Amino acid sequence: MRGLKGLDGRFRPAVQAKAASLSETEVKRSLEEAKKDFLWFAENLPELRKKHLNEFVAIRSQKIIASDRDYRRLMDNLTRTLKDMSEIQVEFVAPEDFEMVLQGG
């Protein structure tokens, strides 16, 4: 199976279907919104650490709409309560001294 996959390894059919049906203009707008959300997250990280340290936060339109320490539980709650997941960005609020090591497969 090909498509968009979350950190938990599960495919997100609703997101895949939405992405497949977007026009080039809609894709550009969606990418711009994702960029705005990421920049908002980065700019607000010191404040987010005070309330959401070591949590995954779901962001839409530069606002936290949900958070949880458990990624899978957060994604399950979001997919259960939201009709459209395509505009949601999930980030991890790590401590300031956090280092991530990525390994190639």
Low-pLDDT segments, ≥5 res: 1-5, 13-17
Element string (H = helix, E = strand): HHEEHE
Structural class: alpha+beta
* Shape designation: globular
Summed up, the domain count is 1
| Number of E-state strands | 3
The percent of residues in helical segments reads: 40-55%
Proportion of beta-strand residues: 15-25%
Annotation field: number of helices? 3
Radius of gyration, whole Å: 14 Å
Largest sheet: 3 strands, antiparallel
Average pLDDT score: 83
Distance between the termini: 18 Å
If strands are numbered along the chain, what order do they take across the biggest sheet?
2-1-3
What does this structure look like?
By secondary structure, this protein is of the alpha+beta class. The protein has one domain. Helix content is 46%, strand content 16%. The chain is built from three helices and three strands. A three-stranded antiparallel sheet has the order 2-1-3, with helices on both faces. Strand 1 and strand 2 (63-68) form a beta hairpin. It starts with 12 loop residues before the first helix and ends in a 12-residue tail after the last strand. Residues 1-5 and 13-17 have low confidence and may be disordered.
